[in-house]
Amino acid sequence: MHKEYTNNEQYEENEEIVQTEQEVADNGISALINAKHNIHCLTVIGQIEGHYILPPQNKTTKYEHIMPALVAIEQDRSIEGLLIILNTVGGDVEAGLAISELIAGMSKPTVSIVVGGGHSIGVPLAVSAKRSFIVPSATMTIHPVRMNGLLLGIPQTLSYFERMQERIINFVSKNSRIKPDRFRELMMKKDELVMDVGSVVDGETAVKEGLIDSLGGLNDAVECLYSLIEEQGDKSEKSVCKSKTQKKPVKRRTAVSKKSVKAEEQSNACAVGGKRTVQVHPFKEYHPSVRMGKDGK
Questions:
Q1: CATH architecture of 8-240
Q2: pLDDT digits 0-9 by tens, 22-63
Q3: 120 given a catalytic annotation
Q4: What is the rounded CA–CA span in Å between residue 68 and residue 74?
Q5: Given the residues 143, 173, 176, 199, the one annotated as active site
Q6: pLDDT of residue 286
Q7: What is the average pLDDT across 215-226?
Q8: pLDDT category, 272, cuts 50, 70, 90?
Q9: pLDDT tens-place string over residues 119-130
Q10: In Å, how far are 192, 203, 283, 284 from 277, measured between CA atoms?
Q11: Structural domain boundaries of the chain?
Q12: Average pLDDT for residues 233-241, to the nearest whole number?
């Protein structure tokens, strides 16, 4: 049987569908129902759009959508981990590095998986997670920084390109197992790209070079994220238990001060008629001068 809708009900349902699709397109989606852990799936697809709007026929990932979404994920206590799915041709260098730095600075467990391709600035995005995966059929293109449009042919322009290229090399080498010299060598390799210098590595080669941690699919990435979440939970529980059992030295100092105050009060209470009397414990010896009063008797 087909469900009958009124015009208002049909309109409201269509609005909810459009709103849900827009939220998924902008921010990703969280697994809430029948999941072992609550993880958030973030997709980086197409071309990464930076400070300039790309043509409408281009499939893009807008950095002004991704950056606030990462901040929200970091603050949301219900989200336990982040899964990043990459299939990108690259894009704006500074926008891609900004997203990569945010992912690398997150306290929650993060896992990335490259499917299809993780080219150009997609390489720093792939290695920014705590663990990275790549499927065997995926490829990653490594090439120097390049720019389209009008450029000034002056030494400062070339120096700017070199510094930006070093930023990418340093980030990739710090967040993966590949050495800076080897990454630079792959970046400047000749006779492999038709219109440019650089190299294209497949999934297995990316793992051998130390660029990506493991070769695997979606199930491997999700299981790895689950294990990272559980490890982080065990560490937090141990730290809480340790803080509860640890004794604070401040309380000891307070107890000692109270005892000294009580002893002083008792000694003051023993002073009668200008003469000081001392209570002698039967098991302790006291100096004769202590047993006598002020007048020496």
A1: Alpha-Beta Complex (3.90)
A2: 555 555 666 666 888 999 999 999 999 998 899 999 999 999
A3: yes
A4: 10
A5: 143
A6: 43
A7: 97
A8: very low
A9: 999 999 999 999
A10: 102, 91, 18, 16
A11: 8-240, 249-291
A12: 75
Three-state SS letters, 27-75:
HCEECCCCCCCCEEEEEEEEEEECCCCCCCCCCEEEHHHHHHHHHHHHH
Mean pLDDT of the chain, nearest integer: 81
Concerning whether 143 is annotated as a catalytic residue, the answer is yes
Placement of tokens 């995926």 in the chain: 138
Task: Name the catalytic one among 120, 132, 173, 199.
Answer: 120
Token digits for 141?
């293109």
User: Measured between alpha carbons, how far is 295 from 161 in angstroms, rounded to an integer?
Assistant: 95
Rounded to whole angstroms, the Cα distance separating 294 from 272 reads 12
Could you give the angle at which helices 93-104 and 155-174 cross, rounded to 10 degrees? Answer: 30
Query: Which amino acid is it at 111?
Result: V
Instruction: List the structure tokens of 157.
Output: 């322009």
> CA torsion 130→34→115→121, rounded to 10°?
-40
What radius of gyration, in Å, describes the C-alpha atoms of the chain? 34
Helices (H), 60-138: 63-75, 93-104, 122-127
